Fold this sequence. Notes:
Shape: globular
Helix content: 25-40%
CATH superfamily: Leucyl/phenylalanyl-tRNA-protein transferase, C-terminal domain
Order of helices and strands: HHEEEHEHEHHE
Structural class: alpha/beta
Number of helices: 6
Amino acid sequence: MIKACAGKREGRWHPTWITPRMMAAFAALYDAGNAHSFEVWNEDGALVGGGYGVAIGTMFFTESQFSLEPNTLKLGFSVLNWHLARWGYRLNDGKWSTPTILDMGFRLIPRQEFLGLLAEDTGHGGRDGRWAVEASPDIVAGWNGAANSAAEDRG
């Protein structure tokens, strides 16, 4: 997953912050049960969308994401946010205000509010260890994430 997020994008090239050293750090976080990925695979078995991030307490920090086919990132985020809400997460920090995450219902919050949420989090709750999918996309499709969303974006 992390290599897919670090890959070149059609029509643009830029150096990525996801260096081999960062990959090793996230692999260690994954092994410790703190980093998690969300993945979307097409009918041919190819990885076509998803992302990864770090869970701390009841906060999830999406670090990077990618999409190689239309709407695959939106599908991945929907399933991720359904799980985060079900598991008691209070926030999914989308990191950057991209059109995709804004379309998904992420919203900018003032820095002071973000820092307040961090200060209120006890570090307890959420989901420890490795994660597994508990619902298929058709179940998630009926969920109204806007009503009880875990999706946020820091501003």
